[in-house]
Structure to design on (394 residues):
């Protein structure tokens, strides 16, 4: 009897030992498995970017014409818009020069894409460059909605487009397109540079810019130069904490400005109000389909005086205003520029933003009339991309 009991006890001990060994092995193997998965993901991402660059290369295989247009890849959730622009190069005695910009951004429905970006026009009236000879190309800028290593071309992290995290976009482009000067930058940095050189900020030396869209980007210009900081993070105002216990952001943090005032926040607020059975023009404009609610729909309803839509825009404007109050204290700008698709809402958004800054930042004495829309609209990044090429080439 005692023997059987001892044998059972011994078996339990063995099981505990085996379990401990297995747990230890899993603990040792798991990081290796995760590393292997990450390596495979990065290879897949690199191949994806290579396929896109090769597709673009087909447009210029003759090496005679610079293309413009879009590549929309729904399977990977990415959109690539590309366009050459001929803009006065002020740093070289007013001579014209051509740059070619590739903007990588999250997938956008193609119809909306072409509604928003008209590649046939040039907002400053400079020379159109459709069918421009490629021999006139000064350089290429790749604009990315995330943190990038400007010196190497490595995409460090794109919270709203993680599929390209870890890709060296400069290497991919040089392999596919050839030996042209290629520069990579955050897309909000490009937009800020464009507005500083050619847009609403051309008469000031210090400004703060926000790009309001799927995510929220930003840029800071001091002494007539757009700053990026030692880790290329300066101006990433979208990841400023606004609501400490708020919703989770795409970056993984909680309560970021982007999480409470970006595109999805507007959609979620509107849907929430409709779920409370409130009557709203929003419901009519989206045909009764909540999936069709967009910031543009909400803004249009607000412009028509819809109570629910006005509440949503006031809420979003309040959070934007709070972020600006913090930005004003941090960088003391002469001008604040709001750009991006959400800023196109106009006064239904700008009015609550200005009210918030007026009442929540009295210490700064900032003149709220200096909160203005981007003058270059969706072309700000293109002009900034051109300026980036010329300023790097000297």
């Amino acid at each position: 009897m005692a023997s059987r009991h001892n044998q059972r006890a011994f078996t339990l001990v063995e099981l505990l030992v085996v379990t401990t060994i297995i747990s230890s092995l899993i603990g040792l193997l798991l990081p290796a498995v995760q590393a292997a998965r990450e390596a495979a993901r990065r290879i897949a991402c690199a191949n994806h970017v290579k396929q896109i660059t090769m597709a673009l290369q087909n447009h210029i295989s003759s090496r005679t014409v610079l293309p413009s247009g879009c590549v929309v890849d729904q399977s990977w959730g990415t959109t690539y818009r590309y366009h050459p622009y001929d803009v006065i190069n002020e740093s070289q005695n007013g001579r014209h020069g051509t740059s070619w910009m590739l903007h990588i951004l999250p997938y956008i429905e193609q119809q909306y894409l072409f509604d928003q970006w008209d590649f046939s026009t040039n907002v400053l009236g400079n020379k159109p460059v459709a069918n421009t000879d490629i021999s006139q190309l000064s350089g290429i800028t790749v604009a990315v909605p995330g943190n990038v290593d400007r010196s190497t071309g490595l995409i460090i992290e794109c919270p709203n487009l993680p599929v390209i995290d870890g890709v060296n976009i400069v290497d991919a482009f040089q392999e596919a397109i050839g030996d042209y000067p290629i520069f990579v930058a955050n897309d909000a940095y490009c937009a800020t540079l464009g507005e500083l050189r050619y847009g609403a900020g051309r008469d000031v030396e210090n400004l703060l810019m926000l790009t309001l869209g799927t995510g929220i980007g930003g840029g800071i210009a001091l002494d007539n130069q757009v700053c990026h900081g030692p880790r290329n993070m300066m101006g990433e105002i979208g990841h400023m904490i606004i609501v400490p216990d708020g919703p989770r952001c795409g970056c993984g943090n909680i309560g970021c400005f982007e999480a409470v005032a970006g595109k999805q926040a507007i959609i979620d607020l509107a849907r929430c109000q409709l779920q409370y059975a409130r009557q709203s023009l929003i419901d009519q404009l989206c045909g009764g389909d909540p999936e069709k609610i967009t910031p543009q729909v909400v803004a249009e309803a607000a412009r028509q005086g819809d109570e629910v839509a006005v509440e949503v825009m006031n809420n979003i404007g309040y959070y934007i205003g709070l972020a600006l109050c913090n930005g004003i204290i941090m960088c003391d700008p002469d001008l604040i520029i709001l750009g991006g698709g959400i800023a196109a809402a106009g006064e239904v958004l700008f009015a609550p933003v200005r009210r918030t800054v007026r009442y929540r930042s009295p210490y700064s004495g900032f003149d709220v009339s200096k909160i203005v829309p981007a003058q270059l609209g969706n072309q700000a990044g293109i002009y900034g991309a051109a300026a980036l090429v010329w300023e790097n080439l000297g």
